[in-house]
Amino acid sequence: MARRKKAVPPAAPHYELAHWLRALRAESGLTYRQMADRIARSGCSPATLSRADSGSALPRLGVVEAYAAACGASVREARQRWERAASGTGTAAARAERRPGAAPAGGRARRLELVYEPAHLLEAMHRLRLAAGQPSLRELQERARTGGFGALPRSTLADVLAGLRMPSEPLLVTYVRCCGIPGDRIAAWRAAWFRAVGSCGPTAVPAALPRVRSLPRHRTRYGGQEAAAAAASA
Question: Does the 15-94 domain belong in CATH 1.10.1060?
Answer without folding.
Answer: no
